[in-house]
Amino acid sequence: MRIGLAHVQFETIHPYLDGNGRIGRLLITLLLDWESWMNFFLEGVATIADEAVAAVREVFALISEDRQRLLAAPGASVMSIRLIEQLPMHPVVTIPAVVKLLKTTKPTAGKAVQVLENLGVLVEKSGKQRNRKFAYAAYLEKLRAGTEIESR
Questions:
Q1: Which residues is 135 bridged to in the sheet?
Q2: What is the distance between the alpha carbons of residues 116 and 71, in angstroms, rounded to a whole number?
Q3: Which of 7, 84, 101, 148 ranks highest by number of CB atoms within 10 Å?
Q4: 18: helix, strand or coil
Q5: SS3 (DSSP) at 110
Q6: In angstroms, rounded to a whole number, what is the distance separating the alpha carbons of residues 21 and 38?
């Protein structure tokens, strides 16, 4: 009904010297396709937005749970607490990187990493004795799951 009214209004104003009939009929087709495309597109946007919100809530819950576990751990230190606050921005770290992040010494950085590794928050990924890399594996996994949502 709305498309028919739009067609009539267009034909009434006759904006062009020639081709008003053809453009009016094309307008009908475009409006029919446009409305269904917009419905499809907006449903997709709403679905992805809902999934993204759920993914963000899961990531936030993970960070909160890991923070609470650290605060309850007997070996928790000020530096390990500062480090867990930095992990969402730096989910893969080395001991030298932690030294710079926390502006501390290498032994103190190593202890902070060790506390988080013992809790399972950080996981050693390099398999080396030196220049080891530690990852906030559960966090990265949640982010990968969120990326899979986006790639659909």
A1: 92, 123
A2: 11
A3: 84
A4: coil
A5: helix
A6: 25
CA–CA dist 1, 120 (Å, integer) = 62
Helix 78-86 with 20-72: angle, nearest 10 deg? 170
Residue 124 and residue 90: Cα distance in Å, rounded? Answer: 15
Decide if 125 contacts 94 (C-beta within 8 A): no
Identify residue 147 by its one-letter amino acid code: T
Do 124 and 113 form a contact (C-beta atoms < 8 A)? no
What distance in Å separates the CA atoms of residue 74 and residue 70, rounded to the nearest whole number? 8
- Buried residues in 24-48 as b, exposed as e (16+ CB within 10 A): beebeeeeeeeeeeeeeeeeeeeee
> What local confidence, expressed as pLDDT, does residue 148 receive?
62
3-state helix, strand, coil in the chain (%, to 5): 70, 5, 25
Q: What is the pLDDT of residues 20-75, one digit of tens each?
A: 778 878 877 777 787 787 888 889 999 999 998 998 999 999 999 999 999 999 88
Residue 92: enclosing H or E segment and its boundaries?
strand 92-93
Establish how many alpha carbons lie within 13 A of residue 26's alpha carbon, considering only the half-sphere containing its beta carbon: 5
